[in-house]
Structures are given as C-alpha cells and as structure tokens.
C-alpha cells in the first residue's frame, strides 16, 4: 500500500524537511488586523512577531475547513492508496476531527487520522518518523503502532515569558496575570489528557529554564538515545546557545531547534521557550 503523510502547520516542520520526506502540510490560519493568513504559507513566524510588536489586537486562530481536507485527500488519492493525517491535540483544536470527518467523505483514498495529543515539533517528530516508514513501504497499522510508541516516550515542557497573551486570550484571569507579573512568575506548562495545563510555577526565567533542563536530564542521564528539540518564540540565538551547551552535556541526545509559529505563539507570546524529547 502506497502511503503519504499529512500534518498541519503547527508541527512547524521546515519546508525543506517536508519536501525531503514528502510530507504534505495543511495550514491553520490566524486573523491579524482583520486579515486572514494561512501560517507557513502567507505568514511566517518572523512576520508575525514583527506585527505583534506593533501592539495590535490579539490575533485569533482557526482550523482548516473540512472542505479543505477533502480537496487535499482527493488530490492525494490520485497517487496514493492511504494517507496518515497527523494533527495537533484534539484538546486544543478541532483540526484532527476535521481530518476524521473528511476521511469519511472521500472514496479514492483510505484516511487514517492520528491525534498527536500535543503540538509543535513533538508532532513534527511523529510526522517525520511516519514519513520515513511510509517510504519503506510500511503499512498504516505499523506506522500507527510506531507513533503510539513515540507518544509513550514523549515529554514536552514550555515556559511562558509574558503572561499577557494568556490573559488576553482568556487562558488566565487579569488578577492572575497581574500578580504573576509582579512576582516575576514564569509558569511551566505541559500537555495532560490532550490539553495544556500548568506543571509548575517558578519565580524567574532562569530558574524556569533550568527546571526544563533538569527534567531533560532525568531521562538523558539514563544514557538512552533521545531526540530533542528546543522550541522558541523569536529567541533563536538563545535557543542556539542552549543547543550548544546541552549537546556537550548529553552526547546521547540528538538536538535540533524549532519555533512557535503564529497559531501557537498567539497564546504563548514572544519569548516563550520549550523543549520536547522522546526516544530516538
């Protein structure tokens, strides 16, 4: 069975990597200053952060329509027998359900939708591994089993540098945001049961980052081979410094750098830093 992999834009897989592994991408959208942009298509992360510095109204985001999925699946059905469609957590977006619904509406290709239960480069790792297996001719069921293995070993933690976007987006009360800012609290977030929830509240940015590195160390110190990604919201140089430092400390970990694009950064804000890792 000839299988193709689809993921959505919130995996933030660079275009050249998607092309290398023949991964199809369906974009989510952001509404910014009254205009709708498809992230990774019409709007880059860099452009988004520049716009946000101008102090515009907080953008909103939206998932791809079922019709957009149908069009994509029907096009792929001309060349492939099956599609594995891997998407950000169903607990924070209806994108996965859109893929499920569209899969029931097409006859030319068999659709296997997969809920990553996470987002960003963790989701990207899933898509890349799936694409490698598809290129080897693995059946969709085998690929699904591998994705479940990866999911079981996946860890991801995010530090929010500025609480204002969470507050403006309704994820945090005004009082919590004010108190958190006064106390310089940097909340660590993670995914539990498909949604983003607080992990710990830490007083300073430095301590919050060190806590993430300590959590990585708990797994990396076991000596097992891991792959990890440092994810940043317009803090590329800082991410590169962390990559250099951590690569020297943990030679058994294959580090890469990714980013929070417009849809996710709408809620996390500029300056957020995260890390995800899983078994290699």
Automatic annotation (TrEMBL):
Keywords of the record, alphabetical order, are: Lipid-binding
Q: Which InterPro entries match?
A: DegV, DegV_C, DegV_domain_contain
Q: Does the keyword Phosphoprotein apply?
A: no
* Gene3D superfamilies xref list: 3.30.1180.10, 3.40.50.10170
SUPFAM superfamilies for this protein: DAK1/DegV-like
Give any Pfam family that matches.
DegV
**Keyword Magnesium carried by entry:** no
UniProt-recorded name of the protein:
DegV family protein
Organism from which the protein derives:
Heyndrickxia acidicola
